[in-house]
Specification:
This protein is mostly helical. The chain has helices spanning 15-21, 24-27, 31-47, 53-71, 84-96, 98-102, 109-144, 165-190, 209-215, 225-230, 233-259, 287-311, 324-348, 353-361, 367-376, 381-397, 407-411, 421-425, 427-432, 442-468, and strands spanning 150-155, 158-164, 192-193, 220-221, 267-268, 350-351. The protein contains 20 helices and six strands. A hairpin with a 2-residue loop joins strand 1 and strand 2. Helix 12 (287-311) runs antiparallel to helix 13 and helix 15 (367-376) packs across helix 16 (381-397). The longest helix has 36 residues, at 109-144. Bound molecules: arginine (ARG).
Length: 470
């Protein structure tokens, strides 16, 4: 097919060059944005008297037909037409003749692709925000069902202090809340309208960029044409969001793998969310958690690749910028899949409350509470730490836990120990007493759950606002 830019060339492009240069295999997913953007551009050109109203109508109608064909799978994407922009424009001119050939007035593919990508990111941000909310909701639901489920909290993967499963899940809820904020900041970066920047230096035609922005629901118009065609910050913002979210999911995945092991036995995944082994009949594997953990590296890679692509680029458009797509698309697909599958995996898993409780009763995670007990009796914390440390060493030697030691044994380490020490050692009491703001006390967790619900409601409201602006 003849190239839309073929005028100054006297030879056909080498086949390998066509194949290497083409982006149609992946940028065809921008067809909807490309068509919507072109319609807005055509209407604006007519409004400003740059093309006739009749031409604009023919363009819009022709584009509607192309949209239908693409959605019906009847559009043949051609590699030698390079990208989605030229595929659609060439087909339009084929259909409607000269009017189609006027569409590209006062426009370059440089600002066109930028427009498509901004619109696409905005649409995907909304879909991802919906999934993120659903996942946060799932976390809150499971957390709410486990305000009294005791488990050991870990530092260095060693049992540290008693907490509740609710508290543990709420930690992830807090991370995701920050992810939501980061997602909104990617939206802000994408909510800027680049069309009208032309190839680099605007246009000699009397266009109205603000009309296009209004029709396409953009809040801001890029105030500098060179920035408009070369800015990819909003993609970096999105990839930064995606990488951080995946990091959070990956940490959670690591815990899901640990918890579902026989050694921990804290949870059991629903059969629908686990997989088996082709050789070992007994196996039930947490493949989904492992895959989310594994895919995290790929998403990190996309962030780094984009940063690297951009670092040496002189202003303004360079073909390197075509490399902004595959990584972004893959990150979007990965994040969406991970969030969707994770929410359901979470709500369907069985929490082995007894295993968690047993773990917290048969260990030394109540040692800090015993030291705090002595502090309340007047001993400075450093000395209390020493006394309890010695008691722990003694208990280990005698193959006992702290609750199993007699008062007489305790008295050998400090005269301050009394009968009431058993209450101090009870894990339920240990948790209930951790009333500091942000701590795992039952009452405190209830407050955190309530504020979590409010946060979710506020997020749903901002999501509804975004939905209006895509
Ligand atoms: N396919 C190109 C991209 O994704 C579109 C812009 C091409 N512009 C150009 N001057 N070659 O970046």
């Amino acid at each position: 097919m003849a190239k839309l830019w073929g005028g100054r060339f006297s030879k056909n492009t080498n086949e390998l060059v066509d194949a290497f240069n083409a982006s149609i295999s992946f940028d065809k997913r921008l067809y909807h944005e490309d068509i919507r953007g072109s319609m807005a551009h055509a209407r604006m050109l007519a409004q400003c008297g740059i093309i006739s109203k009749k031409d604009a109508q023919a363009i819009v109608k022709g584009l509607q037909g192309i949209l239908k064909d693409i959605e019906a799978g009847k559009f043949d994407f051609a590699t030698d037409l390079e990208d989605i922009h030229m595929n659609i424009e060439a087909r339009l001119t084929e259909r409607i003749g000269a009017a189609g050939a006027r569409l590209h007035t006062a426009r370059s593919r440089n600002d066109q692709v930028a427009l498509d990508m901004h619109m696409y990111v905005k649409r995907e941000v909304v879909e991802i925000a919906e999934l993120l909310l659903k996942f946060e909701q799932a976390l809150l639901t499971v957390a709410g069902a486990h305000t009294k489920t005791l488990m050991p909290g870990y530092t260095h993967l060693q049992r540290a202090q008693p907490i509740t499963f609710c508290h543990h899940l709420l930690a992830y809820f807090n991370m995701l809340q920050r992810d939501f904020r980061r997602l909104l900041s990617a939206w802000d970066g994408a909510d800027m309208m680049p069309l009208g920047a032309g190839a680099i230096a605007g246009t000699t035609f009397p266009i109205d960029r603000f009309q296009v922005a209004k029709e396409l629901n953009f809040t801001v118009v890029y105030p500098n044409s060179m920035d408009a065609v070369s800015d990819r910050d909003y993609i970096l913002d999105f990839l930064n969001f995606a990488a951080t979210l995946m990091m959070h999911l990956s940490r959670f995945s690591e815990e899901m793998c640990l918890w579902s092991s026989t050694e921990f036995g804290f949870i059991e995944l629903d059969d629908a969310f686990a997989t088996g082994s082709s050789m070992m009949p007994q196996k039930k594997n947490p493949d989904i958690a492992e895959l989310v953990r594994g895919k995290t590296g790929r998403v990190y890679g996309h962030l780094l690749a984009m940063l690297t692509t951009l670092k040496g680029l002189p202003l303004t458009y360079n073909k390197d910028l075509q490399e902004d797509k595959e990584g972004l698309f893959d990150a979007i697909d990965t994040v969406k899949f991970s969030l969707a599958v994770y929410a359901d995996m979470l709500t369907t898993m069985t929490v082995n409350v007894d295993r968690m409780a047993a773990a917290v009763h048969q260990d030394f995670s109540n040692a800090t509470d015993l030291a705090d007990y002595l502090v309340r009796k007047g001993l400075p914390f450093r000395q209390a730490h020493e006394v309890v440390g010695k008691s722990v060493a003694y208990a280990i030697k005698k193959h006992k836990f702290l609750v199993d030691m007699t008062l007489a044994e305790y008295k050998k380490f400090s005269p301050l120990f009394d009968k009431d020490l058993l209450t101090a050692l009870d894990p339920e009491h240990c948790v209930a007493a951790r009333i500091s703001y942000g701590g795992p006390a039952f009452a405190e967790n209830k407050k955190q759950l309530a504020s979590g619900k409010k946060i979710l409601a506020a997020q749903a409201k901002s999501l509804a606002q975004l939905q209006e602006q895509i």
